[in-house]
Design goal:
Elements: H1 11-23, H2 28-42, H3 61-73, H4 88-102
């Protein structure tokens, strides 16, 4: 099951970002999916870096907390029973099924 994610970004950042995505032959959906996968893989929020590899911006603690809450609401814990599957898609499908069943 796919869901829609809505985000508010400054118009100019969106315009410039979409131009870069077009050059990369990528879509905003692919960007958002990659950002979520990065968070899941690293447990961290991707941050912009300058040419020297330093963080170009810091997310304020309150925004980090709110983002963590939003992610927690849209994810599920991976129980040991799910580790028997061979792929991420299988784990995700079973985990979502268990979450759905728990709503009962």
């Amino acid at each position: 099951m796919m869901v829609t994610v809505t985000a508010r970004v400054p118009a100019e950042i969106r315009r410039q970002g979409n131009a870069v995505l077009e050059q990369l032959n990528a879509t905003p959906t692919e960007l958002i999916r990659a950002a979520y996968e990065y968070v899941l893989a690293t447990g961290q929020i991707p941050v912009a870096q300058d040419s020297a590899g330093r963080d170009a911006s810091e997310l304020p603690v309150e925004k980090q907390r709110k983002l963590a809450e939003m992610i927690a609401e849209t994810t599920f814990d991976v129980s040991p029973s799910l580790l028997d599957f061979d792929s991420y898609k299988q784990i995700r499908a079973q985990g979502l099924a268990e979450k759905y069943e728990a709503l009962g």
